[in-house]
Amino acid sequence: MTALERLFFWTAVLLYALSLALYVVNFVFKAEKRSQTALGTLLAGFAAETGAIAVRWYESGHAPVVGNYENGLAGSWLITLFTLYLVHRKKDFRYAALGSIALSLLILGIGMMSSPTMRPLNVALLSFWLYVHIFFAWLAYASYTIAFSIGILYVLKEKKQAAGSPPGGIFEKLPSLDVLDDMMFRYVVFGFITDAVMIATGAIWAKDLWGSYWSWDPVETWSLVSWLLYGLVIHLRVSLGWRGRKLAWLTIAAIIGVLVSFWGVNFIVEQSTHIFNVR
User: pTM, whole model, 2 decimals?
Assistant: First the structure.
């Protein structure tokens, strides 16, 4: 990691943390007037992280796809991009940033805990399928993160309404429960589709690289489990009519599978065909 990249990286982390703190203060103390400050801070952090990625890309000569650090950097960037897009399009969803910023900071921390040493692409990674595979993985995980964040908002607002509390404050400014439920489900569906493309392109790449489409590698297995869990969310909603609190809690819990498959497995498992790509 160069000095310039380190400067951009820690500036982004600082600004993300400040933005999260501002959103928390706004939400808890109903300081709605400061919401634009929180958004502006998030945008500045996104610009700093973009700078870190640009420096990394220029210095390494390839997209940030090698190791936990680079995957965390790119994944966090796309999560923040999705968050900014949602907040820009629908300002009443601004507090979805609470969950997404927290997860962005988490994966940046996981990445920094791994080695941020710059490494060239090895022979196994010199494939067009790598970029397709990773790109759709980022899309899926960013979408799941937004669904997770909206799920948290749903649970909080539904709990307040169920307690018979009078409307007012921040919760009154949030979208209705039906709108939250619908938007959460849309992001789950988008994530599920892009996740399916990620798994399919990974299988094609694996056939070319290792001679088989599927080898029940721990990362492959957990990715499949995570994808099936979101498939269950869709099935329960479409076929059995699940809505509301139950579906929101399941969507919140499902993010665990994403974190385990993308980062957690490789902190525990030593034997994995995906180790070369994450450490």
Answer: 0.87
The answer to whether 205 and 133 have CB atoms below 8 angstroms apart is yes
pLDDT value of position 77? 94
Which is higher by pLDDT, 124 or 76? 76
Tell me the average pLDDT of the chain. 84
- Please choose, from the candidates 41, 13, 206, the residue with its C-alpha nearest in 3D space to the C-alpha of residue 116: 13
* Burial (CB count within 10 angstroms: exposed 0-12, middle 13-18, buried 19+), residue 138: buried
Domain boundaries, the chain: 3-278
- Whole-angstrom distance, CA of residue 100 vs CA of residue 4: 26
Q: Which of 265, 267, 200, 245 is nearest to 227 (CA)?
A: 200
Listed residue (63, 87, 58) closest to 75, CA to CA: 63
Quickly state the pLDDT bin for 154 (edges 50, 70, 90).
very high
For residues 248 and 181, give the distance between their C-alpha atoms in angstroms, rounded to a whole number: 8
Helix (H, G, I), strand (E, B) or coil at 8: helix
Tell me the two tokens of residue 138. 């980022």
Instruction: Check whether 34 has a pLDDT greater than 90.
Output: no
Taking the C-alpha atoms of residue 132 and residue 142, their distance in angstroms, rounded to an integer, is: 16
